[in-house]
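Researcher: Here's a chain I'd like modeled. Treat it as a single chain, no partners, no ligands.
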Amino acid sequence: MSTLYDPLRRKDVADTPEERVRQWLIGELGGTLGVPRHLMMSEAGLKFGAKSYRADILIYDRSGAPLAVVECKRPDVALTAAVARQAMRYDIVLSVRWIILSNGGSTLVFRRDGSVFVPYPSIPDYDTMLCLH
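Model: Modeled as a single isolated chain. Structure tokens:
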């Protein structure tokens, strides 16, 4: 079985289509968009009621509070309302300001505006995420 190195988990993980999207996005977030690696976590465990979930990537602000949740899908999975609802479920526990959905080919970004999330044109850099917090 082939593997990929996850710099956030600091270990090799199975090379799957979804994992390739996650690793590409970790690279973009930590590189071009300036998110400090120590303020990201992949496969973050959450509990909602009796159910356990795993957020693909969590981004934290400088105080350690959750800032954004990122949901990664395989390239052949469309970014539908159901995918958005999945990420919104995580928000119930996390109260983030940003939700990012990506299948590697398409990426959708939503910013909290009061009690609702509104579309945002692209993934903002880390400083913008903090400023529009």
